[in-house]
Every structure is written in C-alpha cells, then in structure tokens.
Design goal:
heterodimer, A: alpha/beta, Rossmann fold, six-stranded parallel beta sheet, two-stranded antiparallel sheet, 42% helix, 11% strand, B: alpha/beta, 2 domains, five-stranded mixed beta sheet, 38% helix, oxidoreductase (chain B), thiamine pyrophosphate (chain B)
C-alpha cells in the first residue's frame, strides 16, 4: 500500500492509459499550432492568429473536466479548445484558411471558432466579450432547470475589464451554473500581469463576489483536470459559479506575427523549461508508462491527422460571393440592402 | 379597437407575449420591484414572478450581454435599458456581439432578443440624459431598429420584434408614453422594414420617425387647416432596414421633402434619408431636401436653451414654408 511513495504513486494501467490519451491530445494541439504558424507564414491564413503553444496541458485538462452536454465559450486563442472539444481538425483548419467547409463557414476565422454540435459557442475576439454571453447561456440553462454547465475561458488581461466585474457579480447573484477559467499565461500581449493587475493573484478577485476560486499549475494536465472537475461539480450540483485560475506560459508571441522582442532570454528559457508537452513526455517515460519510441509513434500519428487537416483545408473551396448576404439576418426582412460597393441604391435611370 | 396610451400598449403587449410564450422574459434595471422607471412593466413582477421579470444590477454591459447569451440558447429576452443614453455602456455587447453572432459564426445561432429603450429630450435632463443615439444602432448591419410613433405601432412592432429571430433595438420616446390612439385588438405583428404613409398629401413629403413622426402629423393637419397645404407624412417606423422605396414613391409624387429628426443633423438619420432621395428621385426634386434636426450642442439644462436646441412644430412649419417658396408652390390650395 502507500509506503514511501510521495506524490507519484504507482500508476494503474488505467491511469497510464488516461495519461497517454491526454498526451496524444496535447500533442495534437502542439502539432496543429505549429503547422498553423507555418501556414500563416505561407500566407494561407490571414488576419489575427493566436496559438495555444505552451497551454496544451491547460486546454486538455479543462476539456477533460466538462461533458458533452456542457457549453464552452472562449476568447480568441481558441484552436486547441476546438480540437479537443471535438471539432473536426480539417474543418478547424478550413476555417483558418477562410474556406467554405470551415466550422464557421469562413465567416469567423481563427478567433471565431464555433460549432453548435460540440456546444462550443465561440471564439470571441473582443477581450471580455464572451463573459456576459456565457453568463446568459448559464441563465438560460437555469431558466429551463437544466443540468448543463457553462465553462467560460478567458486570458489574464480580461480580469481588468468592466465586463469581468459585471459578469462575476451577476453570476453569484443569480446562482448561475458557470465556471470562469482565467488562463494566466502571465502576459497580455506584452504587458505582464504585475503591470496590469493591482491584485496579481487573479483567483483572489473572486472573493469580491463571494465566489469560490482556486489557482492551479496550468502545466500539469491532471492538476488542471481535477481542479476544473471540482469547479464544474460546484456549478452543476450546487448552482454556484466558480473561478479557476491556471498558470502557465506562452511559448511564442501574442500572435503569430509577434516576435516577442520584449521578453528576456531568461524569461523565455524559463517558459521552455516548463513546456507541458515535453514535461509529460518525460514523465510518461520516467514512470514507465510509455517508451520514447511509443510516444514517437503517437507523434507520427498526430502528424498524419494534422497533415490530413491541411489537405482538407487546401481542397475546400472559398465561399461563394453569392452567399455574402445570407447571414445578416435570421428572420428575412423587406428592404434589406444587398448592394455591393459599386452598386447604385436604385437602378440607374429608373 | 380600443383607445389607449403608448405606455399602456407597450405594457399590454409585453404581458400578452409573456402569456403566449414561456420563453419570453424581461430583464432590466428597476423593472420589477420599482415597476420600471416609466412604469411600462407595472404589475408584471407580481403576475409572472422574479424568474420572468428579472431586476438587474446597474450593469448594462453585463445584463445586456447576458440577454444575448440567453437568446443564443433560444430564449427570447426583452431587455429594458432605462434610457438610450445608458445603452452606450452596453455598446460592445449590442454592436460587437448581438449584431455579429449570427453572421460571424456562419448562421449557426441567431439572437432573438429585444432591447427596449426610450430616447428623447425636452425634460430638462441635461446633456448626458437627453441624447438620441439610435443612429449608432441603425448604422449596424445585423441589428434591426424600429421606432414606433403611435400606440398602434408600439403594439404591432413590439409583437414583431419579440417574435423576430434577430436582435431588435426598439426605440421608445419619453414624450410619447402618454400619447393616446386607437389600438387594434388581436395580435397582428407589423412587418419590420416597412415605412407607413400615415397621411396622404400632394404638395410636400414629411419624413420622420418616433416623436417627430407624431409632430409631423400635427404639423400636416395644421398646414392643411390654416393654409390648404397638402403634406404627405412618411413614418419610417423602421430605421434598419430602411424602407427607401416608400420614401421615393412619396417624393416622386410631391417633388419635395423635409426630414424631421430628433438627433443631430450632421451624419444623422436625416442625412441618410436625404442621400437616398437624391439617389432615387433626383430628377423629380424641385427643391433641395431640408432637414429639421437638433442643434449641434450637448443639450443644455436651462429651459430656454433646451427649447431653442430641440426641433419644434414651428420649426417644421418654417422649413416647409421655405421649401415651398423655393419651388413657388406656397399658394397651392389657398385660393
């Protein structure tokens, strides 16, 4: 039984299998994002593009804590969540490519991944914009006496915007089944948490709203999952909102075009030393749960998935210009303008 | 058909729609216990309970956004924002979210919600509480903006707005709440996106919406009675979509137009109407399209200054005279 084993008890086969599954998912995020960066430099992808590199354990741990019936809202750094939540990698890549088969039909791009089928209701580019929406979704669940939970992800910088305060206040007042997750990668673009937040221990903000909260190592997939499960259970069983802060790092710039010149070499080295994918790789091998060769096979498999996703995106056609006016209104209206820039308002000579 | 106030028409319609559809619920500051700043929701908390008549904190961005999220899951929230001035605090949720969600995600979820909010000056509320910023919303594709001027339209457009699958900004007006008119029985919705010719005429077209459409009718009656001038009134009712064909048809008949608006002139709703007339009826125009709009100042508190800044019925008469003089048509019908 438990003799001298400290925090690493002999893993059961089930645990090893579970951990390997997480490793595969984290690797999918890693390879997908690396390939995305490449596609961006090849000008296949446009606009703003933010990667989850360095946040793989956080993404996978959080997604392991919610169920199919639950809803997810995220900010614009959303590719990894989409992949692990169950969106088809080909359709995610097609969205980044701005193609017809993209999850948002090419209307949203990198920042606006949305798929009703997996209940991921956006991808939002305005910092803090998703918070009131997520609270509203939780309100709808509560209105219908449902048992779903809403998870609302955000970055560390979001904790300083008014919508954060307004939404957390409402969440407690109205007993909403919602879990707020602050993914603290310690940088809002180039601004550090200490530069922007008077209380840099962000999870403590929850106390202003009588909301339970916790901080967890975002580089440890199991720790993230278990902490998130506590939060989800509180929301589901007790209709109490929860704030979870995960702390990890950003392996690259804010977006793919940011060389992150504002970071010192020491800082970058520190983040690299905590790379969650490499960390889990080494842990699996050290624990004897896998061999380096076995993990390389997983990697090769993931590469194939990402390659197929790119091929799918490449082949998907661009949206038809004739569809330009299809999504302005859900209820059609008379006198809805359908003019292109050079069209006259009224037929010439009429 | 019953005669009732604009306020009563709104109240009765909210109640009827809540009885009809359990997914319809109300949110806003002071709408429950306080029964609404303008008493539109009086009695509804007692009848429907706090789940469906939800008092919110003073957090326009938060509760308006929560309504957007609830609508994404298929509920039909009707939000009251105490006055349109405070909607500016929710601008991000209205313009960046409510208006974008259907399109930005390729039509996967619509946002069936209504934001009811009154505009209007003339109550000595000073600069930050007397604005008419409906333009910001009328400018934004993805939103619908309606502006009823009569109790009958208040009812028919509110029914249409609640049943619509898109976010609708429903513009009310402080000065209209006590006005009365005939309201049809039943629950026939209006068609969003259609203007109405509320008075037929042949000499000049008056284009207006909300309070100024009410003023336009009064002015038209006076012009007919005093001077035999036959003014046609086009009540826009819907600012987005804008019913340009109805405006153009009228101007083709009368060959001149004055636009009445409670907002500022430069870049205002009237500018769009005038530009549309120029595009669609240029060859029919006998005079430049004039606009009667608010003076371009933050609205002052002192009564004489406030009155001077706001467009009045007399201002409209003056501009109608000037326009008809310009086309040599002042004597029409007078002999």
């Amino acid at each position: 039984m438990a003799t001298t084993s400290r925090k690493r008890p002999a893993r059961s086969a089930k645990n090893a299998e579970e951990l390997l599954g997480y490793y595969r998912q984290m690797l999918l995020v890693r390879r997908f994002e690396e390939r995305t960066a490449q596609a961006y430099t090849e000008a296949k992808i446009g606009g703003y593009c933010h990667l989850n590199l360095g946040e793989e354990a956080t993404v996978v741990g959080l997604m392991a804590a919610i169920e199919e019936r639950d809803y997810l809202f995220t900010n614009y750094r959303d590719h990894g969540y989409a992949l692990i939540r169950g969106m088809d990698p080909g359709r995610v890549m097609a969205e980044l490519y701005g193609r017809q088969d993209g999850v948002s039909k090419g209307w949203g791009g990198s920042m606006h991944l949305f798929d009703t089928d997996v209940r991921q209701l956006g991808g939002y580019g305005i910092v803090g914009g998703q918070l009131p929406l997520a609270a509203g979704a939780a309100l709808a669940v509560s209105y219908r006496d449902g048992d779903e939970v809403v998870m609302c992800q955000m970055g560390d910088g979001t904790t300083n915007i008014g919508a954060f305060h307004e939404t957390l206040n409402i969440a407690t007042l109205w007993d909403l089944p919602i879990v707020f997750v602050v993914v603290n990668n310690r940088l809002g673009m180039g601004t550090t948490v200490e530069m922007s937040s008077a209380e840099p221990e962000l999870y403590k903000r929850a106390s202003s709203y009588r909301m339970e909260s916790a901080r967890v190592d975002g580089n440890d997939v199991i720790a993230v999952r278990d902490a998130a499960k506590v939060a989800v259970e509180r929301a589901r069983e007790e209709q109490r909102p929860y704030l979870l802060e995960t702390v990890s790092g950003r392996l690259r710039g804010h977006s793919v075009v940011d060389p992150a010149a504002y970071r010192s070499k020491e800082e970058v080295d520190e983040v690299r030393a905590q790379d969650p994918v490499a960390g889990l790789h080494d842990r699996l091998v050290a624990d004897g749960a896998a061999t380096a060769e076995g993990l390389a096979e997983i990697d090769a498999d993931v590469h194939r998935i990402v390659k197929a996703a790119v091929e799918f995106a490449e082949k998907s056609p661009a949206p038809e210009v004739s569809s330009l006016f299809d999504y302005t209104y859900a209820s059609p209206v008379p006198n809805d303008s359908r003019r292109l820039p050079a069209d006259p308002l009224f037929p010439v000579g009429a | 058909m019953a005669v009732m106030s604009y306020r009563q028409a709104l109240h009765d319609t909210l109640r009827a729609e809540m009885l009809r559809d359990p997914d319809v619920f109300l949110m806003g500051e002071e709408i429950g216990r306080f029964e609404g700043s303008y008493k539109i929701t009086a009695g509804l908390l007692d009848e429907f309970g706090p789940k469906r008549v939800r008092d919110t904190p003073i957090a326009e961005e938060g509760f308006t956004g929560a309504a957007v999220g609830a609508a994404m899951l298929g509920l039909r929230p009707v939000v009251e924002i105490m006055t349109i001035n405070f909607s500016l605090l929710a601008l991000d949720q209205i313009v960046n979210h409510a208006a974008k969600i259907y399109g930005m995600f390729g039509g996967q979820r619509s946002v069936p919600m209504v934001i009811r909010t009154p505009g209007g000056g003339g109550q000595q509320l000073a600069a930050t509480h007397s604005q008419n910023v409906e333009l910001f919303y009328a400018f934004t594709p993805g939103l619908k903006v309606v502006a009823p001027s009569s109790p009958a339209d208040a009812k028919a457009l509110l029914i249409a707005s609640i049943r619509d699958n898109d976010p609708v900004l429903f513009l009310e007006n402080l000065a209209l709440y006590n006005t009365k008119g005939e309201v049809p029985d039943g629950d026939e919705p209006a068609e969003i996106g259609r203007a109405a010719v509320t008075r037929e005429g042949t000499d000049i077209t008056l284009v207006a919406y909300s309070r100024m459409a009410h003023v336009a009718l009064q002015v038209a009656e006076k012009l007919a009675a005093d001077e035999g001038i036959s003014a046609e009134v086009v009540d826009l009712r819907s600012l987005r979509p804008l019913d340009r064909p109805t405006i153009i048809e009228s101007v083709k008949k009368t060959s001149c137009a004055v636009v009445l608006e409670d907002d500022w002139l430069t870049y205002g709703i009237g500018a769009e109407v005038a530009a549309s007339i120029s595009d669609g009826a240029f060859d029919y125009l006998d005079a430049p399209v004039r606009r009667v709009a608010m003076a371009e100042v933050p609205l002052p508190y002192a009564k004489p200054l406030e009155l001077a800044a706001l467009p009045s019925a007399n201002d409209v008469v003056t501009v109608v005279h000037q326009t008809l003089d310009a086309v040599g048509r002042r004597s029409v019908g007078a002999h």
